Each structure stands twice: as structure tokens, then as C-alpha cells.
Amino acid sequence: MNKEMFFKMFKNKNYIDQLKEIPQKFNVKHNEEEKKTEITIYGVIGDSWWSDSFSANDIDKALNEAGDNDVVINLNSPGGDAFDGISIFNRLKRHKGKVTVHVDGWACSAASIIAMAGDEIIMELGSMMMIHEASNIVWGSKTDMRKEADVLEQLEEGIIDIYVTKANIGRDEIKEKVNAETWFSASSAVELGLAHKAEGVEETPKIEMTAEKNDDRKSILNELKNVLEPNNQTEQEPSENKGSFNLFKKWR
Question: Which helix (H) or strand (E) holds 39?
Fold first, then answer.
């Protein structure tokens, strides 16, 4: 499958030109002093694509060389071969050191699967993540196509299993988002649990209701109640006002 055929599988065509511009790069740096290995994964995933691509074999080799080092993944990819993505995910999950994934730009399709291997997943400023249905290009009879559809359905169930390990929403909701081809901003990915942090994005401050603040709130509500309910006052209002007050109270 060539690059053009791969991008035709995307339902949303808005970002294809940008995704095509991602440089193909695979780089590994080991720092034995800091006990850290940095792996850069840019471009399409899978060794069946073209000569400068990379695969699960490359990741396995890099991790074997890393030993017990903590691993930092720099990720910017439109996706690629689903099975390579799944293999890389599982290989990273078995690694003994901490795995931190930085989504530098895009984590689409198979790349979003790889991101789920992170003990810490950080969406960098302006980055995006995309999840979608498993897809393939099939030539053959209707029987061949039905068989392929069954295979894709089973593959998709396994991919959803991976997303469920991180997501804070239910499996059915994840499946809906997969079927719809859903694109997440950094903040949205964090909100759904598909990432731990959106770098550079300010969080909305949470208001803490302390006991003191709660007492103040009760005091204000009581004062407001006394204003709205004159029957609570020592001096009674004229009877002709009671009807209008009762009507107000009924609708309150």
C-alpha cells in the first residue's frame, strides 16, 4: 500500500496535507548516566511501507539496548500498520523502566495505540490525537470482502481493549468514537483519560467548598429567604399580599 492509498482511508480530509508533511524519522539516543533512552517516532508506522519507515522490530531492538532505562517517546505520526502499532504498544508495556510519551504533533490511528503504552502521556501544546475504525483495501469476491470485514471487526475489538486501559469512559462510548473517526485536541484527550497532561494548557481552577465557605453560603441563603418570605418576619404582612406570595412560592 502506498502513501496516497493510506490517506484515502481517513474520513476527515481536513488535515491530510499536514499529515503528509510529517518527516519520516526514527532515532534512538541512550544516556547511561541518566539511565534514560529517548526514541523519536515521526512518520508512518510499519516496515511494509517504504525504505525509510520503521517497525516493531526497530522498537524491540532499541528497548533491548536500553536495558532498564526509563524511556521517553517523542511521537508525531499519522499512523500506519495496525499490527505494528499493537506490537509496539505491547513491547513498551513490558519494558521495565518508566515509559513517557510526548505527543509532539499528531498521534493518529496506529500512533494513538502506541501512545496508550505510556505510564505518562503528555499532549504537547497544539497536538492532536485521532482514533478510527480499522481499515484495509481488499480486492476479490463478496466472500473475500465479508471475510475481511470479520477480521477488521475482531482487530477493532482488540484496539478498543487498548483504549479502554486508559479511557475514563465506557467501552460503548469508545466504540462510538472509533466508528465516527474522532479527533481530539490536547485538552479533550486529557478529559477522556487518553492522556494525563496537556502541556501549556491552563486548567480551569476548581472551587473548593470549605466548611467556612459553606457557612457563609448558608447565611446568605437565610437572609435571602427572610426577604422573599415575609411570613417568617415577626410582623405579619397584610392578608391581601399572601395570595401573591403563595403564587410566587409555588413557582419558585
Answer: strand 36-42
Q: How far is residue 90's CA from residue 159's CA, in Å, rounded to a whole number?
A: 12
> Phi-psi category of 193—alpha, beta or left, where left has phi over 0 and alpha has psi -120 to 50?
left
Using one digit for the tens of pLDDT, what is the confidence trace for 185-226?
999 999 999 999 998 776 544 444 445 555 666 677 677 667
DSSP letters along 212-243, please? HHHHHHHHHHHHHHHHH-GGGSSSPPPTHHHH
Phi, psi of 16 (to 5 degrees): -60, -45
What's the rounded Cα separation, in Å, for the pair 80 and 22? 13
Is the C-alpha dihedral spanning 56, 154, 136, 141 positive or negative?
positive
pLDDT in tens, 99-121: 999 999 999 999 999 999 999 99
Dist CA 197 CA 195 (whole Å)? 6
d(CA 123, CA 175): 22
- Residue pair 45/52 in contact (Cβ under 8 Å)? The answer is no
